[in-house]
């Protein structure tokens, strides 16, 4: 076994500051800083609730699959309207991932 060695002296010294000098004498353009959303802090109770809901939903999905295949006569029942609402005849659900992608690309195009 070899004895523990101390880290090199360069790791113990404080980090040097980088200094940038202006080449053309102009002041750098100051861009307004974006206000970032406060970082989300998940508590133990929050994680426990999410885990409980996730596990319960997985159980419901398994029971639904079992009732579709005829394994069980009782269990969860999926709701389906018998007479569709005429106001929703032309309803098209949104693809949220596609919408976010379009928003992201539009933001990039506006910045350049």
Automatic annotation (TrEMBL):
InterPro entries: MCRIP
Top-level taxon of the source organism: Eukaryota
Cell location: Cytoplasm, Stress granule; Nucleus
Tagged with keyword ATP-binding: no
Statement: the UniProt record of this protein carries the keyword Cytoplasm: yes
Chief site of localization: cytoplasm
GO cellular component, one term: cytoplasmic stress granule
Signal sequence annotation: none
Assigned keywords, A-Z: Cytoplasm, Nucleus
Homology family: Belongs to the MCRIP family.
Name of the molecule in the record: MCRI2 protein
Gene: Mcrip2
